[in-house]
């Protein structure tokens, strides 16, 4: 969306470099801030002295995509939601230029929580369309800070996407990590309910009542899934700069399948260790760090969990590399549990030995696989849950090409799909089942609940398994 500003550095007062501590602005070397669009973060600051950092940020109002088929007029800092990431060093002096694009309908300003001064800069940065305001501040306190528009009605400017993060690195810098990403949550309020297509206007009443239709990371449903997933490799350390623009909701930030080795609580100096879920207040932040030890998809969520699966607060960090079965084994065994004491059967082992010898047996065995592995999401009669899990009953998606079912189970399925006229954009994890079990469960599904019938063979499953997911 936004081009990164080129890195430009001009040393003005080289002679004064030695006495940075008390230097006044005009004696500091001047450099242009590198700004990045989410989820990218500007590079760590290498210099060991302070600088005068020039930040040029533009407010833009433009139509963007909130979800598949849903559009929204975002108000933004730098053309993205959240706005451009700003990175400076404790003690730097920031010369801030806020420009409001001539096409804007509204005046805007900026309140940076990193500023010590009235309104966090808001009182000096009120900018009409087609104007630029300039003010300066000294970054006295290190930390990860939210910035946002504070023009009335403040709630509406924030609800439309006017927030971002500014990192003030401590004097000694932050420990080196392999990957850094920028993730910021926000809640949105639209006239239509979640997923209702078309250009959706802001709904003030829902915003006042805090009835969010969308709760998302980085401004839209799916901005961190599929092709846009964050990436890392096994053995790497990852640091997430997590912000919450609100306007209303507090985030219970969690990464499914990881434990935060370190959390810089609320973006400050206090470091907590071994954390599962960290609170990120509206208008606040947290820095989380973890090492990725095993491959797979880690899922970023707001653990107020309906927001994740029904309102969009779901992202993905895709980790590639070698498995380590001592850390995570994958499913080793699945047995039928019969507390009443009947002979214990093993679905995995014995049923596999006693292979289904005809279609009827396939269907019988398949039902057990379905009940144990699929029912929790797709529901007892395959009816699914609207907005979350698509129906596998009378599914036009599946019936059009049953191989799609094999692909979903073997490789997992994510991204937008349409089933019986309803859109879904969620994640089905790859299921750890044998070829035989997959053939059985899909044969069961195809012969249940008004599906078109037919039979899936082990050979078909093998073929799909041999192909990489597309
Ligand atoms: Cu504004």
TrEMBL record:
CDD domains: CuRO_1_CuNIR, CuRO_2_CuNIR. InterPro entries: Cu-oxidase-like_N (IPR011707), Cupredoxin (IPR008972), Cyt_c-like_dom (IPR009056), Cyt_c-like_dom_sf (IPR036909), Cytochrome_c-type_DH (IPR051459), NO2-reductase_Cu (IPR001287). It catalyses: nitric oxide + Fe(III)-[cytochrome c] + H2O = Fe(II)-[cytochrome c] + nitrite + 2 H(+). Residues 361-449 form the Cytochrome c domain. Its cofactor is Cu(+); Cu(2+). It is an enzyme of class 1 (oxidoreductase). Residues 1-25 form the signal peptide. Pfam families: Cu-oxidase_3, Cytochrom_C. The keyword Hydrolase does not apply. The keyword Chloroplast does not apply. The gene is nirK. GO terms for molecular function: nitrite reductase (NO-forming) activity. Binds 1 Cu(+) ion. Its EC number is 1.7.2.1. Belongs to the multicopper oxidase family. SUPFAM superfamilies: Cupredoxins, Cytochrome c. Homotrimer. This is Copper-containing nitrite reductase. Keywords: Copper, Heme, Iron, Metal-binding, Oxidoreductase, Repeat, Signal.
């Amino acid at each position: 969306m936004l081009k990164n500003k080129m890195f430009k550095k001009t040393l003005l007062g080289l002679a004064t470099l030695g006495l940075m501590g008390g230097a006044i602005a005009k004696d500091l070397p001047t450099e242009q801030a590198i700004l990045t669009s989410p989820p990218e973060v500007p590079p760590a600051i290498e210099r060991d002295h302070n600088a005068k950092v020039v930040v040029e940020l533009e407010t833009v109002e433009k139509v963007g995509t909130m979800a598949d088929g849903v559009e929204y007029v975002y108000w933004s800092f730098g053309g993205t939601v959240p706005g451009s990431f700003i990175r400076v060093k404790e003690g730097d002096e920031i010369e801030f230029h806020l420009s409001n694009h001539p096409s804007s309908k509204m005046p805007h300003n900026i309140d940076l929580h990193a500023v010590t001064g009235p309104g966090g800069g808001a009182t000096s940065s009120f900018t009409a369309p087609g104007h630029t305001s300039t003010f300066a501040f000294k970054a006295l306190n290190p930390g990860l800070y939210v910035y946002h528009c504070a023009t009335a009605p403040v709630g509406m400017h924030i609800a439309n996407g006017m927030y971002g993060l500014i990192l003030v690195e401590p004097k000694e810098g932050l420990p080196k990590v392999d990957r850094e990403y920028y993730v910021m949550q926000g809640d949105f309020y639209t006239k239509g309910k979640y997923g209702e297509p078309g250009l959706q206007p802001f709904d003030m009443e829902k915003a006042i009542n805090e009835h969010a239709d969308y709760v998302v990371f980085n401004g839209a449903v799916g901005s961190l899934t599929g092709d846009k997933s964050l990436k890392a490799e096994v053995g790497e350390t990852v640091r997430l700069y997590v912000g919450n623009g609100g306007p209303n909701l507090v985030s219970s930030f969690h990464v499914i399948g990881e434990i935060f080795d370190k959390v810089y609580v609320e973006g400050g100096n206090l470091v907590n260790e071994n954390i599962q879920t960290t609170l990120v207040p509206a208008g606040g932040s947290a820095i989380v760090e973890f090492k990725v030890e095993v491959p797979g998809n880690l899922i970023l969520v707001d653990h107020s969990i309906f927001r994740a699966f029904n309102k969009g607060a779901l992202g993905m960090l895709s980790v590639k590399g070698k498995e380590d079965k001592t850390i995570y084994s994958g499913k080793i065994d699945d047995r039928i549990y019969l507390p009443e004491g009947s002979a214990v059967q093993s679905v995995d082992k014995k049923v596999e030995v006693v292979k289904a010898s005809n279609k009827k047996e396939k269907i019988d065995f398949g039902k057990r696989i379905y009940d144990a592995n699929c029912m929790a999401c797709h529901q007892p009669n395959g009816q699914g849950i609207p907005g979350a899990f698509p129906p596998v009953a009378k599914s036009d998606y599946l019936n059009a090409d049953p191989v799609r079912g094999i692909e979903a189970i073997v490789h997992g399925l994510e991204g937008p799909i349409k089933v019986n006229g309803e859109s879904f954009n969620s994640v089905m994890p790859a299921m750890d089942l044998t070829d035989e079990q997959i053939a059985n469960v899909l044969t069961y599904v195809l012969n249940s609940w008004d599906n078109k019938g037919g039979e899936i063979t082990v050979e078909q499953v093998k073929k799909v398994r041999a192909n990489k997911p597309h």
